[in-house]
């Protein structure tokens, strides 16, 4: 007899799996995200049970925070630990770490806090960073620098219970001196310290010892969080997710390292070079050249402006060659005044003493400062130049110094704020940059005044 | 009847007292020091018992460390505590705080460690600094920044005993997490931490828990000690006297504050201004001017060099006015190259990556870096200038750029090291300073080459 193999009737879930698998193999993550968003949670769980552990990890990472939590709880325990390993899998983390920030737009949410910590714990620092990327903490965020190896306690625990937790945590915890206090929803509600625990009697409740916590969100810029740690002189600061759930701690020594790196970067930028990756003496000359050549070229090209300006006034120069003698002095002084203002304001920004919204206040202060400096130098310049050359030349030099110092101070003070306002590192408007800019402006001012005074 | 008052026969000790009192009223401290040095200890004690508590404090401070300890032990207890108060007396501290370092040469020794701590404890931070001066710790030394409020233990103590000391110290101690270990001579022999204590069983001996300590001498530069704390990421580091006796601790948050202050200072100096004492916006314009005007004047006066150089070459300028067009471009590029080198090397010095003895290595690296940059810019400059003007002008510009970049890099890289070698803050050879220096040199190079190439 002839038997025909009975065709299995495709069920909606089969289609789903098919779709999912097609998208997966095509690495079409955005499409997957959208599709998973539409599926009812139980179907998602079903889908999870049918795919490989790597694929499961990828899929999981595409769920919204709320669903991720639901799904995780519905998974059977073996699959849960399976999933955790999958999420730490080098290949899986790579898939996400390699995404550039824009593509991460659809990487909908952070991973639930409970998972985040479990994922990061026990990982060597290097892998931690890449895994943190997978958790949705952007490049340069404190989420990438925090440690998950901490000891926490609960409001309802006693001192004795907490000390037990501390003893248990001693082996792994990176910091045990600052102890974050959580409520039953794992939310950060307070902070206490080993010091306070030692002072209290052992059956006292933590809720009576804890004080209001300072904290930072995992997605915040690492530098800002680090600055908070050192400004408040904390030994460690809790890092939370968008729902105030504890995900890690930023220790003061990591904060110091973060800030030191920033300082080096600012210092380098101020000097118009890229920061070095290794100690000076172990940096190959080639890398030294690389760290400087780009800026040097940009500045040199900017400086050709001065050539063009001078060409415009070449006639004036030929008539009164003596004017050429003062060019380096005048633009030099302008550059110096600009640098002084820029340095002061840049540092003030780094320390948080000044904000972009203070622009007007800064400008008026620099205007007054620059004008005062200009008056002093101008008077001096007028005196010397009138004696050495003529009263007219003296007037030109004096007035130019006054004008240049004022302009330079305002430009130098304003640039860093504008940079910050447009989210550029203020230090990028480095001193050389400002000098070059002020050079051209200064020359124009100089020759305009000269023409007016000398009646050319 | 006539009675004649019987004259008391002057004993040697009376003379001593007289002498002492004369010197005291004359504030002739050096003479006092010498005299006290010759007296046998018992006589010193006698003298101490006869003078006022303020005078006693002054006298005491003039004893050598060894004698100071002897004398203190021989004094009767009431006088001992008297002396301690006398040494904290505002007027007494002022007498010594006001001495400039040279005069302090004869301020023979540090105060014995045991006393030092007792003196500093319980003082508000402000008075601590002035008292530390009295103890013989120079301006800017870590002795002025350390805290005396710490908890220490002994090799021979058990964990339980130490934890008791910690609990007892909780109220006052500024730091209880890092615990220095002393031997019976009060010398620092090890370090342990509250963390380790919690991990050990309560009857274990400290000697079995402690590890080798990192430390700094109280007279060491605060910045260097602070850098050690952050580099080794210690929470606190023991500060000892010249005999390894514990006098205080430097906590990481104080270390961070010290370094932050240094950073601000360096940043300011790099920009050729004095650091501000208060936040930018709350600094009066007048102070802003003050922080800048001196440097600006110095640099302006330095810049008159360029005027003189140009005067020398005025004839050449009149013949070929086009040469004037490139002056700002050329000296600007020189200044930038110099700044880049100076910034990199200054930062390397601050981080301890480079030492003055590395001068030759730095110079050769900068020579090669500068030459390479010069070749690149020179080639570019030659190309552009030959097209825009003439082959000859192109040659002049190209060669000048090559020469200037090389010189500037070497000068910029060398200056900070020379500064450090002669114990001047490297950041003082600020970028503006180097620009000005390079400006003059650059002009000479430029016109020499121009004359040679153009055969003037």
UniProtKB/TrEMBL annotation, chains A, B:
Gene3D superfamilies in the cross-refs: CBS-domain (3.10.580.10), MgtE N-terminal domain-like (1.25.60.10), SLC41 divalent cation transporters, integral membrane domain (1.10.357.20)
InterPro entries, alphabetized: CBS_dom, CBS_dom_sf, Mg_transptr_MgtE_intracell_dom, MgtE_N_sf, MgtE_transporter, SLC41_membr_dom, SLC41_membr_dom_sf
Subcellular location: Cell membrane; Membrane
Annotated CBS domain residues: 146-208, 209-265
Any Gene Ontology CC annotation: plasma membrane
Spans traversing the lipid bilayer: 370-389, 395-419, 431-454
Function statement: Acts as a magnesium transporter.
Subunit and partners: Homodimer.
PANTHER family (UniProt xref): MAGNESIUM TRANSPORTER MGTE
Protein name: Magnesium transporter MgtE
Protein's organism: Leucobacter exalbidus
